[in-house]
Amino acid sequence: MKELAILKQQKRRNSDQVSLKKNMHKQIMSEINQDATTRNQYIIAVEKLLNRPLVSFFTSFNYPVSIDDTDCDMLQSILQNLNTSTGLALMISSPGGDGLSAERIVNICRAYSKTGEYWAIVPGKAKSAGTIIAMGASKIPNYGKDFMSFT
Asked: Mean of the per-residue pLDDT values for the chain?
């Protein structure tokens, strides 16, 4: 009887390990495919901390992409459907791009924010046109090195 209970317990552990591995694999594949579901909890936490909606704007440092007019159009379409009555926070990470597109993004963020201002959050690097977007913000909050570990 005791041996049967031990076998059942081992089987349950093995089943739990397989389930855990499947969930980890699903999460990793989700991130690889740029699915935002794994980041949603952190975005919500940052929005609560800042008391304003957060839009993340990342361009790749590994592939030849840069900020251009299509990013302006994409950002504008997102902001049209966002409640920005308490302001706007733009989290940016980018190696750069077109300076005029960056200026247009600054103007779009200011125009769509009901407070007339936006904050820039830079968790990594914002180079060239990314710097223009960050410097166009009314505030760049500095929460120190622990900013992304508050949840």
From this structure: 83
Quickly state the pLDDT bin for 86 (edges 50, 70, 90).
very high
In this predicted structure, the answer to whether residue 21 has a pLDDT above a threshold of 70 is no
Helix (H, G, I), strand (E, B) or coil at 18: helix
- The mean pLDDT value for 26-31 works out to 64
Task: List phi, psi (to 5°) of 89.
Answer: -120, 130
| pLDDT tens profile 52-79 | 999 999 888 888 889 999 999 999 999 9
Secondary structure letter of residue 124 according to DSSP: S
Angle at 37 between CA 31 and CA 40, to 5 degrees: 115
Specify the 3-state DSSP secondary structure of 128.
Answer: coil
**Amino acid in position 140:** I
Q: 84: which 2 tokens?
A: 């920005």
Does 3.90.226.10 match the CATH number of domain 39-149? yes
- Ranges of each domain in the chain: 2-36, 39-149
Residues 97 and 59: beta-carbon distance below 8 Å = yes
